[in-house]
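FAQ: What does a ligand-bound record look like?

Like this one, built around FE2/S2 (inorganic) cluster:
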Amino acid sequence: MTRRRFLEKLCIGLSGVCAAILGIPLVGFVVAPIFRKTTGKWISVGNITDYEVGKTVSVAITDPSSLPWAGITAKSALWLRRVNDVDFIAFSVNCTHLGCPVRWLQDADLFMCPCHGGVYYSDGTVAAGPPPKPLIRYDVRTANGQVQIKTMAIPITTTL
Ligand code: FES
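The answer part, i.e. the structure of the complex:
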């Protein structure tokens, strides 16, 4: 083997090593979140005493299924109602039509979707408009004086 040939092979080999050193962590960073299980965990959304019986309030959460680079798009919310001293109900904020955030109107006792006029009763069932099914509910429990929500991917469905 000539000296020139040896240096060529050495350069190619070192280039491959450098590409692997830089590329493997990058590929891992991009691919790993796809296989990460982040839903089905119980997260605290505050003390039981923070919530008034009979009131439905918006609670900010972070979408646990979002990718690390999702940024502000991972922020979401749910509607949480304290039914009595021990029971809570939590509704997804996303309309089941095309996913717009619904608003709770206390005086009307309804959830309203601003996008296409979807209306839901206070129990989340459809009252009017295009939503094909009731608001999605989160599992809720109380533990150690805290209200906890069982995480899930943001339940957006389409009828398209
Ligand atoms: S997205 Fe709510 S009615 Fe269309």
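Follow-up question: can I read anything off the structure? Yes, for example: The CA atoms of residues 25 and 31 lie 10 Å apart.
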